[in-house]
Every structure is written in C-alpha cells, then in structure tokens.
Amino acid sequence: MKNKIAIALFSAALGFAGAAHAEDMVFTSWGGTTQDAQKASWAEGFTAETKINVTQDGPTDYGKIKAMVEAGNVNWDVVDVEGDYAVQAGKLGLLEKLDFSIIDKSKLDPRFVTDYSVGSFYYSFVIGCNKDAVKQCPKSWADVFDVKKFPGKRAFYKWSAPGVIEAALLADGVAADKLYPLDLDRAFKKLDTIKSDIIWWDSGAQSQQLLASAEAPFGSFWNGRLTALAATGVTVETSWTNNITAADSLVVPKGTKNKDAAMKFIAHATSDQAQASFATATGYAPINLDANVLMDGELRQTLPDMQAETQVNADMDYWAEHRDEIGTRWYAWQAQ
Amino acid sequence: MAMTATAEGMRRKRAFVGARGGSFGYLLPALVLVVIFFIVPVLMLLMRSVLEPEPGLQNYKALLGSTTYLRIFLNTFLVAGVVTIISIVIGYPVAWLLAIMPEKWSRLVLAIIILSMWTNLLTRTYAWMVLLQRTGVINKTLMGLGLIDQPLPLVNNLVGVTIGMTYIMLPFVILPLMGVIRAIDPAILRAAALCGATSMQCFTRVLLPLSLPGIAAGALMVFVMSLGYFVTPALLGGTSNMMLAELVAQFVQSLVNWGMGGAAAFVLLVVTLTLYAVQLRYFNPNKAR
After folding, report:
1. How far apart are CA B275 and CA A293, in angstroms?
2. Under CATH, to which class is A2-122+248-305 assigned?
3. Taking each helix axis from N to C terminus, what angle separates A316-335 and A83-91, rounded to the nearest 10 degrees?
4. Chain A residues with CB inside 8 Å of B69's CB?
C-alpha cells in the first residue's frame, strides 16, 4: 500500500516536471472574428509544429504593454498592434528587436517591416453600405461627407488612428498624393460639417452591428468586417474608391521571458501558408508576398492589395511621429 | 414579544460594541489588503501625474485650464446627478412597496432585482443599445403605432446614458432604502393618521423625514459610483457627452499619457472623497438612527 502511494506520488511529480517543460507563450490581439482567425490560422498550426502552447489574450492595450515593460513583468509575448504604434513603441524602447535569423523577412512586404515589427495583416478603411436600408449608397469619401445627398447617420472609427482624418481631407478635395503632412485644421473643419451625423464605433463587432441594424446605414469600415458581415446574409455594398490602407503589426514587448518562442511564433504567423489561410478566413490582405499563389483566385480579387488603383497608403511614419499630437486634438474635438 | 426583541437587540448591540472596542486586529487583514492593492497604486498614480513627462503641475494645469476637459468634468457631474435623482424617484416607491409587502412577495421581487445585478454588465448595456437605437424595438413600436414619424434619438446621447445607468444603479437605491423604511415602526404612521394627518402629510411629514438617511445613503452610493462609470457611458453615450472615466481610459490606453491620466483620476478621487466627507458630516445614516 505504502509503495503504491509512493509510486503515485513519484509519477505525479514526474508529470508535473513534464508539464513545466512544455513551453507556453501568450499571443494578444483585438478579439472578435479577427483573433479567432489568428488562432485558427496561426496558433494552432504553430502548436502542432513546435509543441509550444499558445494562450490567447486580449484585447490589445497600449497602457498594459507600457505597464508590463516598466514593471519588468511581461506576460504578453507577441502582440498584434496598429502599425503606427509599433513604430512609436520601438523608438520608445518598449519592444524587443526582432530576430531576423529566425524570421525570414525576404518574403515580407517591406512597407511593414522595421527593426521591431513586421506586418501582421493589412486592411483598408472602405466605404460600406447597407443596400437594403438606403435609396442609394455613397461611392466616394465626398459622398460620405455629403449630408444633403446622403442624409442619415454614418459610422466612423472612434479612436485616433490613420483613416478618418485622411478620409475628411480626401472628401474636401485634397489630392491623394498630397495628404501628408496632414492639414489637421482643414480636416477638423470638414469633420465639423458632419459631426452630429456621426455614430462612432469602437470595435469591429460594434461596426457590424451598426451597419446590419441600419443604425448607421453607411460609413467607414474595416474591409474584412464587411466581408464577414456579407457572409451572414446582409446585403453589403463596398466601395473601394480611395480605400485607405493601414497595417497591423506583430511586436514583442521588451523583457519577455519567452523571446525565443515569440520569434518562432512570428516566423510561423508571417509564413506564406499561415498568411494565406488567415487572409482567406478574414478578407484582409496577406503581408507575405508568396501567399498569393496559395489562395483561391476569385477570393484574391476581393482583398485590399488588389484594389490598388485609387488606393491611399496611410503614412505610418508620419503617424508614429505625430500620434500624440493628433490623438490629443482628436479626442478634444470629439468631446466638444 | 416586544420585550424579548428589545432585550435581544440590546445583547447584540453590546456584543457589537465589544468587538469594535476590543481588537483592532480583526481589521488588519482587510487593511493590509487595501493598503497594498489600493492605497499604494493610487499614490504611484499620483506620483506619475506630477512627475511625467517632467516634475511639476503642468498636467493639472492642462487639465483644469482646458474648456474641453472642464466640460467633461461638468458633464460627469451632470450625468451622475441626473442618474441619482431619477434613481431615487423611481426607487423610492419600489423600496416602500417591498417594505410593506407580504414577505413571500417581497422576497420574489427582491430576487428579481438582485438577479439583474448578477447579469454581466456588458450584456445588459448591449441589450439597452439594441432596445434604444433608431432601428430598435422601442422606436419601431412607437413608429408602428403611429405615435412618432421620426425615430427618437434615445442612444449615443445623454438620454441613453441616463436610461442605461439608472437601470444599473436602481438596486443600490432600493436596497438601503428598503432597510430604512422597514425599520420605521408602522405605529408612528398610524399615530399620525389618528391625529388627523392626510395620507400626503403622513408621507411628507413622517415617512419621508424618517427615511432620509436611507435616501442619503442610496444617493451617495449612486452618485459616487456614477462619477467613475465607464462601460455604460462608453457604449450608450456619444462622444460629446463623454464622462471622466472615458477620458482617463483614453489617456492611459490610447495616448499612453499616464501623467494626464493620473491627474484626471486624481481629481476625480479628490472630488469623490470630498463628497463622501460632506455626506458623513451632514447625513450620516448611523448617527441619525
């Protein structure tokens, strides 16, 4: 009897040691359908390949990243952040330098690669419209800002980020190649003209709810959320005229205890296969240049990188530099 | 019967006083917890507000010197005040009814009220969004009945925030009020009626003054909780009637400007503590009883 207990204890101890040995890491993103796809397309394959468990956490919170790094207690190993934040945070010393001996950057879209970050996926702010709810859908940003021709509420992204300011300037007649440096006075003046008709969305899920219920029958949306909404049977019309692109980035907060696993995860997530699978699931464009050939041709046509004709690339470096200044002004304007 | 109840009450009171006078030690675990996990972090936040980005009071100057931020402060008090008043007006009759209902029924109603408190806050707030929006159930019904021809703006504004927050705050008014009203001896009301008071006079001159401590306790609780509320105003309000907690979240999460965030949070804390002190001084429910 005693022996049996001893054996049980011994094997339990062994089991414990074994469990502790298997590596774990945490991936943090924005939740919702996007993170579901990241889990399915990136994390599951990664775990199968490397035996490293990936715990999902979220939503991404820049305050938390700063707190973790300053306290030296980093629980997030890889984080999906907005591109302009990645550039800024790298400069502020909040991020680990990426190990490009593990991550193959030769195949990655160079627009989104820095010492501290690589692209995660890239998306466009497009004009979305619930066709059943309005007589006619706006086709251009000027239309979206025209309350006479297109009465009713319109939806815009609430947070200070590339997208809305650019849309306002385009609507006011600024040429797409003359957007930067941003004329903030002009942009806010234009935004003033539709302010009382704006409903702000602060998450992708909310934007879908607004459009589907026709609470705001049109507005500016992430293209992938419209693809997902259309798949549920809502008659969505998407106008790609002057679609404004921005990318999310993958970063590693400084001081992570799982740096090696983090680099391997990024290498896997940005591989052609993982990127193709994520793009197929979400309607966002891959940042791996080899992912194209792995994707269904018809679906390929609906992704942001195929809509290059009148496309506007948000200038991430400009935003990184002026993020605080624009943000302070943005929120003050909203609150007025 | 009444005698035994009083004697029992006295015994309990002695035991309670004994414990309070006897050992401060019982308080220690809770106190340590509060100091480590609340007081220390708050002080650290305060330090940031005067040290970041450089030592000085510039964060407070920026906060209090800007009309935008002052508007947010005013709006915060406006919303908290309106929510408090409406909660009391709606909650008082409910509490009264609960206090005089047969126990069997009051338990059931109470269970319903408390059950709603246990449901996830976010779920409840989203539910209001679906009800109140322009294409929501309420507007559709009113339009279907021909009572209105344009949807009423019930959400993304002050109306939405007030409705959503009042609903969430109601139990915090009803529960203390019910306790106070129950403790009022019905004989006093009977006596008033016998002396010729109308039922209105019974209410305004007897019941209302006697239940004032309950109103004060409930009002303070609701007002203070409302001042720091985040989720409901963020989802049901518009940006032009932003509340302070949202401003703090913007500073901390989006702008990563902890100096300003700390300053805003600290101003809120000071105002809240001041109000609490005023309430203790003038409307202390324990003293009044």
Report:
1. 66
2. alpha beta
3. 110
4. 332, 335
Q: What is the CATH number of the domain that holds B83?
A: 1.10.3720.10
Residue B159 belongs to a domain: yes
Q: What are the chain B neighbours of A332 within 8 Å (beta carbons)?
A: 66, 68-69
CATH for A123-247+307-335?
A: 3.40.190.10
pTM score = 0.77
Contacts of B253 in chain A (CB under 8 A): 61-64
- Interface confidence, given as ipTM, is 0.70
CA gap B235, B250 in Å, rounded: 14
Residue whose tokens read 């919170």? A61
Q: Which two tokens stand for residue A244?
A: 């404004």
Number of structural domains in chain B? 1
Range of the structural domain that residue B204 is part of:
33-288
Q: Rounded to an integer, what distance in angstroms lies between the CA atom of residue A164 and that of residue A141?
A: 10
Reported as a single tens digit per residue, the pLDDT across B20-64 is 555 778 889 999 999 999 899 889 888 989 988 888 899 999 888
- Among candidates A63, A209, A335 on the partner chain, residue whose Cβ is nearest the Cβ of B253: A63
Question: Do B258 and A335 count as a contact with CB atoms less than 8 A apart?
Answer: no
Same fold, A2-122+248-305 and A123-247+307-335: yes
